[in-house]
Amino acid sequence: MTDSVDCPPRRRLFEAVGIELEYMIVDAESLDVRPIAESVLRDEAGAVVSDLEFGDIAWSNELVAHVIELKTDGPALTVDDLAAKFQQHVEQVNRRLAPHGACLLPTAMHPWMDPHAEMVLWPHESGEIYETFNRIFDCRGHGWANLQSMHINLPFANDQEFGKLQAAVRLILPLLPALAASSPFMDAKPTGLLDSRLDVYRNNSRRIPSVAGRVIPEPAFDEATYEERIFEPMFTEIAPHDPDGVLRHEFLNARGAIARFSRGTIEIRVIDVQECPLADLAIAAAVIGVLKLLVEQTWTDIDTQKAIPIDPLERVFLAAIRDAELAVIDSPELLRHFGMSESRLTLSELWRHLCESITQTDHDFTRRHSAIDVILNEGPLARRIVKRLPESPSREELRGVYEQLANCLATGTQFR
Fold first, then answer.
1. Which residues constitute the domain of residue 312?
2. Per the confidence metrics, is the pTM higher than 0.90?
3. Cα three-residue angle 112-113-118, rounded to 5 degrees
4. Does 254 reside within a domain?
5. What pLDDT, in 10s, does the model give residues 394-403?
6. Would you say residue 351 lies in a domain?
């Protein structure tokens, strides 16, 4: 929401990456949410702060008091060693939470949190921004108070590089729930969607529709066009509700990927957080690998990529929110951007092809990021969670599975 990963401008395409991972703080026994982020975010003098820096990794808060965000402290040159670094910090946070009878819980949504009763805004630094969001949008809902994600920040050096990256990002966004969906439950019930977080996310700012648009960004491939098509309509529409201009910043943009021209990055935001950093970073590596192939015009040229409108991308995106890896692409035009001649494929079949394509130029990809094999073979985390539970699970059955997920996060292991 507010600025976080500080990727300096003028970095070239794929020269660096910034990663952010969000986790819930919950009671270690009941797994109910605990709004005690301030017990973790204290500096050496004991003062509550919004950011703690530890060299490569920093801790921070976003909006609500039961969420902790771990993020790269500045740009990393590669994602290859980040899983181990993030895992070390997960364990450090858990050690700070243990005396309070609390721990971190993964996945993109708490399965039974009641945000209308349990949401507590972060009252410290950035409090004015969060209060303004709450006044305008009422953050007492799942789409604000109950959603955790991974953000991938990728740099661009100029308008030309931005256009290439933006075109590639728009193409890949609809495919991401097939790998990353981890939110099949809400209000202690199955929603019928594997990526419930994205469903509530795309509707959370409906009072000001231009804030999120249709989640898939409009075709705007340079800063001036982006300003005209995205920023200005958004700022104009919210101005009567925000006369002091508190939210007149890039961070107001809630599309699935947002341009941060102030620091020269595009931030991808539609990826549910996984059960452990090992899985998150494997997904990040796969996403970056495919984006490189698109930017290098492996299958289609940049102008052809830019010509894709929102409609076909949105259709796939909505199907992926519902069915994840079993969603179907039946657009030959869209499939050819990924080197496929078929007229109809599941996202699972497409992702297998894409990961194989990555290994043709990055031969060591699957060894370095072997967690991707579990996702390709057993489905995204949401699918694995649903398979472990009856059709209408009890609260105790839900708690049992999510207790295992908390243990996966604590130990850095995948949920099978």
1. 119-407
2. yes
3. 155
4. yes
5. 999 999 999 9
6. yes
